[in-house]
Amino acid sequence: MPRKRGDGSIIQRRDGLWQVSLQVSGTRRTAYAKSEREARAKLRALQQQVATDGALPTPGKRTVGDLIDAWLTSAPDLKPTTVARHRYFFNAYARAALGNVRLERVTPDRLQRLYASLTPSVAERVHRILHRAFAVAVLWRWLASNPCDRVLKPAYQPQRRELWTHDELQTFLEGTAGHWLQPLWLLLLGTGRRLGEALALTWNDVGLGVAVTVNGTLQRLDGAPVVTTPKTPSSARTVIVPSEVTAALQRQKTQQDAWREAAGWQDAGFVFTGQTGQPLHGSTVAHALKRECARLGLPAVTPHGLRHLHASLLLHEGVPVTAVSARLGHANPQVTMSIYAHALAGQDAQAAQAIGRALAPAVPVENDPVDSSVRAVPPRS
Predict the structure, then answer these.
(1) Buried b (16+ CB within 10 A) or exposed e, 288-297
(2) Euclidean distance between the first and final Cα of the chain, in Å?
């Protein structure tokens, strides 16, 4: 039966590769696959693009490196710091393997081999970057389909770190009482802020000593401090603080006033700074926290771990997930539940006890005669 125009063709070459060809309006596109099944998927993708756009993709001689560079140079929806991170991860972990590969020759098995050569966490990050880049290539008609859609997504499960017990938390609070960074650590513990959000806090964001507002996040771009918009729309929030955090903020104000008396003070309005007013490095905070944990004989914790501890403590106290989610600035409560499922697990026993109390009779009745009309089990038929 003769092929119709636009049907395309699939043949297996002598070297074992499957060749896909489709010609539309005098323009021919050819793609290659390792299996007949993959070849048919590529042909369907070409046909779908013709049906949608009326034209075939035009990859030309563009490589994966060309795509990444073009996308990251003109991505209006990405923050400069995000662009820098994406570029770093691609250059460090994927450019050597994919940078010079033509777009139409990127196959799922090539991507799978790349992921297998990386650690699970890095592979998951590289996959997300490539998936987004190839989606842009499809949008630009450089590709007919996204090769990342046909790979086994790297399985990375973040290792859940053990959090401090109540006694360990008290040891930390008492042992760091005189440390110059304790007000910052208390803010992280008392509000669940991300470290970048805390470092971007200005005195204008502190409202009447009972609430603090998240208006930005402090990051480093080529070594220079940059305050960007919050991570997500829900990250912009106002959080009521406990009295302990209010007192810590007051101590920080007093400490900063003393520093201001020294020469060379550069006032940028930040709440947490070095002794000359300069914005803090996140690494400075993390290293100091690690040293204090070692000095006090406590399990090491990161600044982000203090955010996790904040959320877990609230959930263990029975605070609704919706309230914890809003406090953390998560996009929705499902995000909170997926991260803190371990903390929510203990609430199942509380739920069982609560429903037990509801089902129990108000006044226990002893020797209550059994009503013959009510059976514990259905009668046999």
Answers:
(1) bbeebbeeee
(2) 64
Phi, psi torsion values for 31, nearest 5 degrees = -135, 165
The CATH number of 64-150 is which of 3.40.50.2000, 3.40.50.720, 2.70.70.10, 1.10.150.130?
1.10.150.130
Question: Among residues 240, 277, 244, 282, which one has the least CA distance to residue 261?
Answer: 277
Quickly tell me which residue has 């196959």 as its tokens. Answer: 107
What tens digit of pLDDT does each residue of 130-147 get?
999 999 998 888 888 899
- Contact residues for 162 (Cβ-Cβ < 8 A; gap 6+): 299
The pTM assigned to this predicted structure is: 0.66
Beta-carbon count within 10 A of 364 CB: 7
- pLDDT tens figures, 163-190: 888 899 999 999 999 999 999 999 999 9
Bridge partners (DSSP) of residue 31 are 20
Q: How many CB atoms lie within 10 A of CB 169?
A: 16
Q: How crowded is residue 65: how many other Cβ atoms within 10 Å of its Cβ? A: 16
In eight-state DSSP terms, residue 19 is E
Tokens 């290293």 appear where? 287
Tokens of 307: 């955010």
Q: DSSP H helical segments within 54-94, as ranges?
A: 64-73, 80-93
**One-letter amino acid of 231:** K
**Residue 4 burial (10 A CB sphere; 0-12, 13-18, 19+):** exposed
> Phi/psi class of residue 172: alpha, beta or left (left: φ > 0; alpha: ψ in -120 to 50)?
alpha
| Torsional sign, CA 67, 70, 73, 78 | negative
Which residue, chain included where needed, has tokens 């203990």? 346
Domain topology for 166-342: hpI Integrase; Chain A (1.10.443)
Q: Is 319 left (phi over 0), alpha (psi -120 to 50) or beta?
A: beta
Q: How far apart are CA 85 and CA 79, in angstroms?
A: 10
Is residue 179 helix, strand or coil?
coil
Q: To 5 degrees, how large is the angle CA 47–CA 65–CA 131?
A: 55
Alpha helices, DSSP H only, in 94-210?
95-98, 108-116, 120-139, 166-175, 182-191, 195-199
- Report which secondary-structure segment, H or E, holds 307: helix 303-316
